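Dear support,

I submitted the protein below through the web form. The confirmation email said the job was done, but the results page showed an empty box. After a refresh the structure appeared. I'm attaching both so you can tell me whether what I see now is the final result or a partial one.
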Amino acid sequence: MKTPIPGVASWITLCIISLCSGSVGQTVRPDARNFTVLDSLDSPEARIAKAARVAPSQRQLTWQRREFVAFVHFTVNTFTDREWGEGMEDPAVFNPTHLDARQWVRVFRDAGMKLVIITAKHHDGFCLWPSKYTEHSVKNSPWKKGKGDVLRELSRACREAGLAFGVYLSPWDRHERTYGDSPKYNEHFRNQLRELLTNYGEIAEVWFDGACGEGPNGKRQVYDWRSYYEVIRKLQPNAVIFGMGPDVRWVGTESGYGRETEWSVVPVTVQEERVAELRRASTFDSFFTAGDLTAEDLGSRKKVLGSRALLWYPAETDVSIRPGWFYHAKEDTSVKSPEKLVDIYYSSVGRNSVLLLNVPPDRRGLIHENDARSLAGMRRILDATFSKNLARGARVLTSNALKGHEGRFLLDGRYGTYWKPGASEDSPWVVFEFPRELALDRASLAEYIPEGQHVEAFRLESWDGAAWKEFARGTTIGYRRLLRFNLVTTHKVRLTIEGCRSAPALNSFGLYRTPSGL
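What the results page shows now:
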């Protein structure tokens, strides 16, 4: 995020997300909290109002604005042609012939990705760095005669290119002998966390899944999640913790497709005897219970009204560019097409989520040509579609606007300015009048989430010279909502907010036309 990305400047600077407009993380309200307690005596109206005031933490906002993230699955499995290793693999099998982390980062950067997360240790326990706490690592492989460190090379390449760097560290370790002896293994795991969080510069995301098995002693390991969080907060306070952590949740599938209605504010379980303590707390970490949230409805009014506490807990949507997560030569012809990746983008980033796309290096230690070609094709389609916001230059009329938050801010391309109507407005609207007739088939809307997530339903209409005709509608907006619809030709478009939890704060609005042939 610190340097512009060659080849995608048109998308970054001209489309409505305006990522390069100012620094990434400066806009969280000083009084904002990313959780709240709901009282038993609260009226339904009071509960919804509290939900509307929950906002992201600084680290969550920075993460959300990255939008598109690379996942890198790479370990002994790459060389044994497996998805899950057993932990008994000989480190000698790990021997990439032409490993080039800078090549990976060039491919990711040119695709528009802003963060790279690597499987520092997968379930097999093999470490891509020379850990002091195990012999099952690159230090005992022939690659670079045991002197190599994949994490050092990748973290350095990310810094050089202006990308953020993150790590996946599997709690399940099928090699480690202390696994299953919970106290001993938890200390072992914390030690490895400390290595990752102190030796490779700034870490933007720590990725945990919940995979768990029995150790050599026949006992199932009990993970001490809260102690892991404490290590991360101490050593990398700006890193978000994904999955089994309190900052970012798994969307619930590995398809790349998020929910049509995606709330970032969701109910969470809190022990009743700790509610009073939670009211005084400044962080939710010690109250968080690890687990996946996979239901279709996570944050509706019905869910809010029946809950005891709410947390800003946004979704990350993961998928692999190939059928598997690790590289397999037999899948070289099964790489997702640019068109499929674009569809996934609309259904993840375009549905208030962050897209985590796995792109596994091959046995050479390179991103395969087919994968790179699909990513480049995806980027071309997105750039061609979103290079010009056709709503720019429109005359903007609103039903109402607070002073300093007029409708014109929807089109200024800046993060931190927004349109906000008065709180008494039931169905606020904005009309965009164009100097000439336009043909449109895409739209983008964004709430200014440092003010919370508010919109529950909206519609878009075009003026045909005599009446307004609806051409698209949606439910939640959140950080970003992208809509696709049949071609509409008009000189006037109206956005109407049909339902919201409080006066919405809309950061941006965009209208686009897909170039013919794409």
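Response: this is the final, complete result; the empty box was a page-load delay. The chain has two domains: 56-264+311-386, 395-512.
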